[in-house]
Description:
The protein has 45 residues and is an all-alpha fold.
Amino acid sequence: MEFMKVQIHNQTLNVDAVSGATYSSKGIINAVNNALESAVTEENY
Length: 45
């Protein structure tokens, strides 16, 4: 998915959802956000 490449390249979660796949796109963006938050939290322990 192109927006995932944009996330990685730009190091941001602020990307546009894919037209016609808004729910899937938002789900993936939220999953990436949750994983990053968990990684930061776990590393602090």
